[in-house]
Amino acid sequence: MVALTEDQGFTSVIGFLQLLDLLSQTTEMTFLASEGFTPQALRSDSNRIQIAYGFILTNFHDPDLKIGDLAALVNMSSSTFSHFFQKYTNKNFTEFLIDVRLGNVCKLLLNTNENINQISYRSGFNNAANFNRLFKKYRSCTPAEYRRRNKENGDFDWEKQMTPSQFLPNGVKVMADAGPFEYSTTKVVHA
Q1: How confident is the model at residue 15, as a pLDDT?
Q2: Judgement on whether residues 15 and 64 belong to the same structural domain of the protein
């Protein structure tokens, strides 16, 4: 990737295409955001899963949320709902709920200066030790480290970055009046 910033002309285009090819072939991947970052419900033909998903996103902050609550909501037994839910989400209810809660925690860690314990309670965790254990297990760092690391990375200056126009021959202008935020992507935070 460093070579891409140093190469000029067509060589940089070839290098970029090689990078895209490498990325498209990799089997190693992690999602950049959990379900807690997206307000949209799962796209599915099943009205029941839409109802369950919406209920979880509305009530994940309730530490007493149980699978039985959702099962009753969609008129299923807990066991049947558990299998149904896993079929559509590829996660069991507990894993899904933890993922939503941790996604909300990460969002609050990045967007607020609230105390970490307050954030964990607001996100549905009622035990600080359990919260810290789960956060470290799923995010590979403590909440404080996550906040500090991403605050440090928040100083990144997008204005100084290379633009797509670097690949064009001299004198050719596309998007002449557009600033870098008109065509660039936003900062990606790895959780």
Answers
A1: 78
A2: no
Closest C-alpha among 74, 63, 71 to residue 101:
63
What is the C-alpha R_g of the chain?
22
65 lies in the same domain as 130: yes
Domain that residue 168 falls in: 2-29+156-183
CB 152 within 8 A of CB 128: no
pLDDT above 70: residue 22:
yes
Confidence at residue 150, expressed as pLDDT on a 0 to 100 scale: 82
How many residues in total does the chain contain? 191
Global pTM reads 0.60
Mean pLDDT computed over every residue of the chain:
75
DSSP string, 106-171: HHHHHH----HHHHHHHTT---HHHHHHHHHHHHSS-HHHHHHHHHHHTT--GGGS--GGGGSPTT
pLDDT greater than 90 at residue 116: yes
Indicate whether 163 and 146 sit together in one domain: no
Same domain (yes/no): 144, 127: yes
Amino acid identity for residue 123 in this structure: S
